[in-house]
Amino acid sequence: MDVLSRPAEEFENDKSVEAIWAMKAYEHAEIYFNILCSVDPKDLHLSPEDDLIYRLFREEFPNLKIDIIIENELKSTKEKAKWRPFCERFKTVIEDYNYGTLLRSDSSMDYCEENTMLVTKIQFLAIEIARNREGINDILRSKFMPEPKRKDEQVIENS
């Protein structure tokens, strides 16, 4: 019998699985942030369905302030009721649409414990696509992009 086909009630929370998930989520966040700081966010595509996600997101949440997201507001009972049908629209469109993903609360800052919240993958995509298209993430390249190496540093590394 396949273990994954057994009822969920038979399993306890496995700390090693949680740790692996947390490492994967952090890895994704780190890679995304590095890319975000390296390219023009307006040119960044996060999924093949970016246009659809953005259009539906702004139809459903036209006034959502995306530069700084307050976790308690995003996860309030009222907001959850609005997000649930939005997310479910992508059930067959975006693979793993409901996987836990890390989102920066304040778009002008890097990921850190105080600036990170857990959202579904489709919420992450919707908010980050909007941040990229609306110029919210533009500041990151100038703020976090590494300084080019000086010639004397390059010579030392190549020795």
From TrEMBL:
Residues annotated as domain Polysaccharide biosynthesis: 17-140
One Pfam short name: PBDC1
Gene Ontology CC terms, in alphabetical order: cytoplasm
Protein name, per record: Polysaccharide biosynthesis domain-containing protein
